[in-house]
Each structure stands twice: as C-alpha cells, then as structure tokens.
Task: inverse folding
C-alpha cells in the first residue's frame, strides 16, 4: 500500500503531547531549567566529563517507547545532567505522523515517520536544555532500523549515542561521519565489555563511557540471556567494575579513564555516593525518572509504576529474545497464563507482524521462535505509553522508588540523588561548580541559577 511520506521535518511546540484532552498532563512547563537551583555547597558530588562536557553524576536512562522523549531528556539536561531520548517508535507522540501512518504497513514509510519524530524530539530536547548538560539518544541494537536511527540522531544534533540490547559492534562505523558524537555502549558484564573494546580498538575507537546495567534490578530488556541468570553475582557492580578496570590494564588503556556508569535499582543518595566512591563516574537511573512530572508518558503510566508493589513486578521472556522486567498488569497476567500454549504454536509467518513495522531484527512472534515472547511488543508498549492499564505492557525496574508513590519534578529527584535532601516543591540542582544562565520559557526573562 502506498503511504504518504512526510516531505519535510516539521518542528512543533516543545511541550505538545499527544494524549486525550482529559488526561492529567502537567500544564505547559515545568521543565527543570525554570527551577531555581538550591544545593548545599559542602556536599556536592563530583561532576564527570563526557568529552568536553562537565555533567552531573546522574544519567537519565533511555526508556521506550516514548517514556523518555524530549520533555524528560531536555529537563534533565537543563539541570546539567545527561538526558536520554529513547529512539523507538517516537511517532506515538506526534498526531500528524500517526495520522500519516494510519493503515500503512510499509516498513520504509513507517521508518521515515519515526525518523521524522526522532528529529523533532532531539531538537525540542536541545531547545529545553538551552546549552546545558547533554542530550543522548538510546538506540537498541536489536531494532532493525538501528543504523538509520543512529545516523538521524547524529544529524539532528544529539551529543551522544547510547546503544544496548545487543553488542554495538558496528557503532563506530555508523558514526564515522560524526566524530564529535560520544559513543556509549550498555553492557552487563566484563565479558561483553571485552568483546566491544577489542572490536572497537581495531577501528581505533574507544567508548566515551560504558553503562553497566544490572539485570537483577533494571527495567525493560535485561542483559542476561536467560531468566535464571538474572541474579548471577557475576553482574554485581563492584566485581564488574573491578574486572573492567583489569581489562583496561590488560589492553593498555587504563590511562584513557573511560567513565563507568552503573545502572539498575539505584534509588538513594547513599547508593550514588557508594558507587562513586567505588570508582563509578556517574550512575544511570531509569524508573525514578519515568515517574517524574516531566516524564513523557501518560499519568496513568506513572501511577502504575509508582504504585506497583514488589510482588507486582515480574520477569519474563520478551519477543526480542531477552528477559524483561515489567509490572504484572492485566494484559501481562493474561499473556503469561497463555505463554506456554502460545509458544507451542510459534510459527514463522511475516503476517504475524500485523503492523508491518518489523521493528525487530529477530522477533519471536513473527519469526516463530518458541523460546521467545509471543506478542507484539511495539503495540503493547504503545498502549502503556498512552496509559491503557488494561492493554499495556509497563516496563519497570525491580526496586522501590525514592519518593514512594509520589510524582515529583525532575529537579526534586536530582536534588535527592545528589544531596540526600528530600526537598519541598521547587528545589533544584545543578552541577554545583558552575553558574548557569537559563531563560524562562514562559516569560523569556533570564534566570540566574546559582
Ligand atoms: C519503562 C522503561 C523503559 C525502558 N526502555 C529502555 C530502552 O528502550 N532502552 C534501554 O537501553 N533501556 C531501557 N530501559 C532501562 C533504563 O534505561 C535503565 O537503564 C534501567 O531501568 C535502570 O534501572 P532502574 O529503572 O532501576 O533505575 C527501560 C526502563 C524502563 C523502566
Ligand atoms: S510483530 Fe514483532 S517485529 Fe512486528 S512490530 Fe511487533 S514486535 Fe515488531
């Protein structure tokens, strides 16, 4: 079927969000840049350097689909952190692009629409950041169009590409024309880091940082091959960081000081401090950012994550062939009840990719892989993004949230992780060492943040 391809990439208002009129979307702003900074100067944590940018030691992890888009990533960057846009299927935030895609099953056209959405989201995030912090784009290697996403992200001005869900062996080649873009692999153990380093070094490239994600704690897809391996002590941060430093020595690159960034279950200031003392340059946090006021998902999405009890959080096999972690909402409960039966009927059939998006290189449903999930992950995550509690798949990390069930601004979360202070309302945080001029997006008047 012929579908309309967007001829030009349109830039829309930075705060537009495509949710029903009656949704409790926070009004216009509040982006972090407009908040006043208040941080006790005697307890600043050290900043870290991504290329020539000094950043807060708190990285906001990429969360698909659409959970971390321009508003969240831009707000984190505006306060001096690394904000990450998840690149997957961002057209769900753009009604005009969704309309162009209606009834379309042509992968090329759908890809073009997603690239247009990605371009918009990156530019809007950069706009909110106003030159502070940095904007990264998270791209899953398992996604069939990952190469196009990488190229679009670089062309649209992203400062960094973060790649996980598979070994990012081709990332240096894909970004060869964009030497200023920082490259950050997500891996879970020293073995994976070794493979990537050796391959990249043959191309005379080193990662600008490495995220080490712990499968026992993180949300979304997990970096273990089997569910039974998730709790393996070989993934524990302390030994993994030690082994990676040994690897750096063996490969003669210890002098390069590649920043290590643990991720998964980090929910307190004390944990941040301990990890930094153990040699981490920063930490990556996912779920606590997903439920902030500025998080790009529907308020119902945030409520489901925030109110989930430990017994509501489960791991299961995703359609991408990796274990994943999510909240046991009605759809997932029902799916898991039927999982064995569905897997016994697994059959390779391109028509099972009902959307025609063919988002994954290897898809358990479309390709008939009995050991993998048997559902369309894109459809389910899109329901969750829009707050459909009955039909959605709600990825979530395993641990408690810093503010319990409360939905609070990014500035409060950063302030808490940086200082341990549970601030009231408007407190915010920045890099402590710098003074930053930001302009209020509401009034256009300058704020001096100290
Ligand atoms: C809703 C949700 C979606 C996620 N999607 C992605 C993704 O698309 N790509 C990715 O590399 N990691 C993804 N993650 C993992 C986060 O970026 C982060 O590393 C992880 O959740 C950290 O653990 P925490 O949630 O306990 O802080 C996702 C996590 C959540 C909660
Ligand atoms: S069926 Fe598989 S490949 Fe097709 S859109 Fe869904 S998850 Fe992606």
Result:
């Amino acid at each position: 079927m012929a579908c309309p391809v967007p001829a030009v990439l349109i830039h829309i208002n930075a705060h537009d969000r495509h949710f029903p009129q009656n949704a409790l979307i926070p009004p216009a702003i509040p982006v972090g840049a407009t908040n006043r900074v208040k941080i006790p100067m005697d307890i600043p944590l050290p900043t870290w350097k991504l290329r020539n940018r000094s950043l807060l030691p708190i990285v906001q992890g990429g969360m698909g689909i659409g959970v971390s888009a321009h508003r969240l990533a831009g707000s984190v960057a505006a306060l001096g952190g690394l904000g990450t846009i998840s690149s997957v299927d961002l057209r769900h935030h753009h009604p005009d692009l969704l309309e162009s895609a209606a009834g379309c099953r042509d992968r090329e056209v759908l890809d073009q629409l997603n690239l247009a959405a990605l371009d918009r989201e990156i530019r809007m995030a950069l706009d909110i950041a106003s030159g502070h912090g940095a904007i990264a784009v998270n791209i899953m290697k398992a996604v069939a169009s990952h190469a196009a996403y990488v190229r679009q992200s670089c062309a649209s001005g992203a400062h960094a590409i973060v790649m996980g869900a598979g070994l990012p062996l081709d990332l240096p080649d894909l970004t060869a024309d964009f030497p200023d873009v920082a490259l950050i692999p997500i891996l879970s153990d020293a073995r994976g880091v070794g493979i990537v380093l050796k391959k990249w070094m043959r191309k005379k490239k080193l990662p600008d940082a490495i995220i080490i994600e712990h499968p026992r704690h993180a949300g979304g897809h997990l970096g273990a091959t089997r569910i039974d391996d998730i709790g393996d002590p070989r993934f524990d941060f302390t030994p993994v960081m030690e082994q990676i430093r040994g690897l750096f020595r063996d490969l003669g690159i210890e002098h390069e000081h590649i920043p290590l960034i643990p991720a998964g279950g980090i929910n307190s200031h004390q944990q941040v401090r301990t990890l930094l003392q153990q040699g981490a340059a920063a930490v990556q946090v996912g779920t606590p950012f997903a439920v902030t006021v500025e998080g790009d998902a529907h308020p119902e999405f945030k409520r489901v994550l925030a109110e989930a009890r430990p017994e509501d959080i489960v791991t299961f096999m995703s359609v991408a062939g990796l274990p994943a972690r999510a909240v046991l909402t009605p759809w997932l409960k029902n799916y898991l009840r039927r999982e064995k039966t569905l897997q016994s009927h697994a059959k390779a059939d391109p028509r099972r990719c009902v959307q025609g998006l063919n988002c994954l290189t290897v898809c358990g449903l479309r390709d008939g892989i009995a050991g993998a999930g048997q559902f369309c992950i894109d459809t389910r995550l899109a329901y969750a993004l829009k707050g459909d509690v009955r039909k959605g798949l709600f990825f979530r990390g395993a641990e408690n949230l810093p503010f319990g069930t409360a939905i609070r601004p990014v500035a409060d979360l950063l302030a808490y992780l940086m200082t341990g202070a549970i601030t009231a309302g408007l407190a915010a945080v920045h890099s402590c060492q710098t003074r930053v001029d930001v302009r209020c997006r509401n009034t256009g008047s300058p704020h001096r943040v100290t």
Q: What stands out?
A: The CA atoms of residues 235 and 411 lie 30 Å apart. The pocket of iron/sulfur cluster (ligand 2) is lined by residues 319, 353, 355, 357-360, 363, 365-366, 376-378 (CB under 6 Å). Confidence is low (pLDDT under 50) at residues 1-16, 18-43, 425-450. The radius of gyration is 21 Å.
